Amino acid sequence: MSIPILNCDRNSRDQLDRFLLDAKEDLSVATEKILPILDAVRTRGDKALIEYTEKFDGITLSSVTLDPHSIQTNLDPKIKEAFLRAKKNIETFHEAQKRESWSKTIDGNRLGVKYTPIPSLSVYAPGGKALYPSSVLMGVIPAKIAGVKNIQLVTPPQKEGLPEILIWLSQILGVNRIVTVGGAQGIAACAYGTESIPKSEFIVGPGNAYVAAAKSYLAGKGIIGIDSPAGPSEVCIIADASANPKWVACDMLSQAEHGEDSSAILLTTDKNFAVKVSEELEKAFIERPKRLEMKQNSIYKNSAIIIFPSLEDCIWFSNELAPEHLEIQTKTNEEVFSKIEHAGSVFLGPYSPVAMGDYISGTNHILPTARGSRIYSSLGVDTFLKRVTFQEVTKESLESLYPFVKLMSELEGLDEEHGTSVKIRTEESL
C-alpha cells in the first residue's frame, strides 16, 4: 500500500472534491452525546462535574479548581529554557499586533474606535497522550497582550497529578486558576460557570470531538465565543523538483503524527518528484515506526500527492483547500506566496517546517481547519479585542445633515421618532 498519487487538472472534480467535502469533521454524533452533559453542568454545577470526572476519568475530585501559584514546581531547567525561549518569541510576534484606539473628523463630527479586551478567557489543554503545553502559550499570551484580566486553564485531571509543565506555565503566564475538569463537562463549566468556576466569555484550545462539539454548540447558542471550529490537523505543501523529497515526506508525516484523521496533501507538477516523496514516506515508516498505524492510516486514507499541469494550478487548488498549514518549497516562493489567498499559516522555504510554528518561531499555532481559513484567521491579539465605535456630533453638523436623515428615515418608515430625534435638536437649545 502507498499514498495515492493523482494526476489532476481543474476539471478533475470527481477526484478533487473528496478533499474539499471531507474536510469538515462531522460532530453530529458527538453533539448528541454531550447535550445531557451540558445541561447537567448548567443545572447542577460542581456536583455534576465531580460525578462526570469519576465516570469518565476514574478520579474522585475534592475540588474542581487549583491555584497554580500555591504549588512548588521542580521542572527540568532545559525544558524551562525551551519554553521561555518560545514564550519570548511568541510575545514579540503578538506584541506587534496590538491595537491603538483612534478617532477621525468626518463631515464635521468626531468618529472613532475604542478597543476593549474581552473580560475573561478559558484555555483548554488536553491531557494524557494528547498533552500540548505549547498550546497554553499560544492561547494565553495573545490574550494577556490584549488585556484580558481573568484567564483560567482547563485540563483533565490525571491520576498521578497534573503535569508539572502545565502548573509551571500557568505560573509564569499569570493564569488565575486551573480548572481540573476535562471534556465537554469542562467546557460547560467554563461556559455557564459553577459555584467554584467563574464563567468565561471566550474559550480556546484544542480537544477531542466532544470538546469540539461542546465549543461549537455553545458558541452557536451565543453563550461563549470560540476560536474557529476545529477539525483534524492538516498540511498542504506546494513543492517543485527543487525541494528535498525526504524533507517533504517528513513534513507530511509530522501532520499524520497528530492522528489518523489528519491529512497531508502535496501539490506538485513533477511526476518524478512525486514518486520520490512516496518512496521516502515508505522508508520513514520502516525507520521511524512510532505511532506507525496512526501515521499510515492518515497517509493512506486521508492524504495524497496531486500532480497538476502547472504551478498556477497548484496555487488554485491550495486556495480552494484553504489549509490550516501551507508550506511553499519552490524556486519562486515569494511569487507563489503573493498568489495565496487562504491559509491559516504559511511556511516559506525549505527551512520552515510546520513544527517551527508549532513550537518556537513565534506565530500562533491555533489555526482554522477544515477550509476555515477562507473566513477565519489564526488566533491573535485581535481575537480577544472588541471594537467599540463612538461618535461625537456637533450642532452644526447635525443641522447640516438633518435633511438627509429626514429623507432616509421617511423612506424606512421610521421618521416619527428617528427623524424627530434629530429634528428637535435643530429647533431647540439645551
TrEMBL record:
Task: Name a Pfam family for this protein.
Answer: Histidinol_dh
State the GO CC annotations: cytosol
Enzyme Commission numbers on file = 1.1.1.23
Quick one: which residues bind substrate?
A: 233, 255, 258, 325, 358, 412, 418
One of the record's GO molecular function terms? NAD binding
> Which reactions does this protein catalyse?
L-histidinol + 2 NAD(+) + H2O = L-histidine + 2 NADH + 3 H(+)
Entry-linked InterPro entries: Ald_DH/histidinol_DH (IPR016161), Histidinol_DH_CS (IPR001692), Histidinol_DH_monofunct (IPR022695), Hstdl_DH (IPR012131)
- Specify the enzyme's EC class, one word: oxidoreductase
Keywords, alphabetical: Amino-acid biosynthesis, Histidine biosynthesis, Metal-binding, NAD, Oxidoreductase, Zinc
Query: What does the entry comment about cofactor binding?
Result: Binds 1 zinc ion per subunit.
Cofactor(s) for this UniProt protein: Zn(2+)
Listed pathway(s): Amino-acid biosynthesis; L-histidine biosynthesis; L-histidine from 5-phospho-alpha-D-ribose 1-diphosphate: step 9/9
Task: Describe the function of this protein.
Answer: Catalyzes the sequential NAD-dependent oxidations of L-histidinol to L-histidinaldehyde and then to L-histidine.
Q: Write the protein's name.
A: Histidinol dehydrogenase
**What organism does this protein naturally occur in?**
Leptospira bandrabouensis
